[in-house]
Each structure stands twice: as C-alpha cells, then as structure tokens.
Design the sequence.
C-alpha cells in the first residue's frame, strides 16, 4: 500500500510568498492533496506582496490549518505524506527546525517530517547569509532536509518574473517526484 499523495505546504514570513502560492496553484492539477500552514508573519508579508486575501490563499489548498493548532493531524507521524515544503522559509523557521525546538504547527510539522524520514524542502530566503544561517542550513541538511534557495535559472530564457517563479516552483515539485503538466524544461 502506498502513502497517500499528500504534501504539506508551509509559508513563513520571509519575502517571496509568491513561491508558496505558485506551488499551491501548480499542485491543483496534479491530484496531490495539499495541507497548508501559514505563519502570522507570512500573513503580514502576503498583505504587502500580493493582492490576495488570507481567505483566497487558504482556498488554494485542499486543507488549511491555523499555525497555533499544534494538535492538528499533520503534527503526527501517523499522518502520511509525500513530505513538506516551506516556501519561503524564513531564517527564524530554519533556526527552529535546526534546533528541534518548535513553537508552531509549521515547525512541528517540519520536525515530524524529518523524524519520519520524509522529504523536507526549504526555500530559504535571506541575503547576505551569516555563519549562523549557514550552520543552520548544514544542520537541517545533515538531518535529511533539502535546502533549495529560490535562485533564478536563466537557461529557459524567462521573459518575466512570473516565469522565474514558476520555474522555481516546478523544480521544487520535481524534488517530490511530482510532475507538472506542460512545465517548460
């Protein structure tokens, strides 16, 4: 029996909330059930970066959970998933995951993803990086996570920021073996 085709999508407060939104949009046509957690800081960032309400954001997911609901099903290892992606992933969120000290459903779900040896992909957003950031990235990588900063690729000759965001989201889904119909390679 195979695991359900579920993916946890976390959105933290770093700039670049469009990455999480685009992932949710692309996942709609794949048959993958999405479970969304958005931090309070991400809600603030959403209001600054997008003309999208919180309700509209949550409607993109199959299921959405309050960030304070640490008793939600996705905080348990028995809730089977393909894994989890946090897009964007703030340095605070990275630090919590690296330390194992989780304070919200977002970081608890990431911790569970690691302990269950499932795929955890973090689209970390910050520059320049301090040695603390780099050590935290090394720590989560050694624990099994994939650190995948949303760095633009230009080999597809993108004509817009939208194309750059989509290409990053498609590459992120590739890490879970999720194919996006019509994706440009």
Sequence:
């Amino acid at each position: 029996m195979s695991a359900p085709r579920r993916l946890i999508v976390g959105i933290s407060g770093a700039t670049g909330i469009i990455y999480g939104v685009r992932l949710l949009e692309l996942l709609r046509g794949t048959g993958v059930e999405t479970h969304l957690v958005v931090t309070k800081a991400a809600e603030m960032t959403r209001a600054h970066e997008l003309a999208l309400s919180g309700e509209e954001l949550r409607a993109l997911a199959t299921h959405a959970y309050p960030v304070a609901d640490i008793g939600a099903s996705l905080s348990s290892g028995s809730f089977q998933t393909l894994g989890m992606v946090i897009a964007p992933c703030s340095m605070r969120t990275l630090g919590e995951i690296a330390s194992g000290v989780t304070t919200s459903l977002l970081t608890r779900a990431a911790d569970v993803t690691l302990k269950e040896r499932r795929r955890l992909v973090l689209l970390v957003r910050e520059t320049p990086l301090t040695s603390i950031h780099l050590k935290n990235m090394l720590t989560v990588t050694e624990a099994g996570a994939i650190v995948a900063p949303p760095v633009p690729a230009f080999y597809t000759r993108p004509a817009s920021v939208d194309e750059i965001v989509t290409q990053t989201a498609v590459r992120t889904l590739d890490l879970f073996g999720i194919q996006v119909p019509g994706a440009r390679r």
Q: What stands out?
A: Residues 161-174 form the longest helix (14 residues). The mean pLDDT is 95. Strands lie at 6-11, 33-38, 63-65, 83-89, 119-124, 146-147.
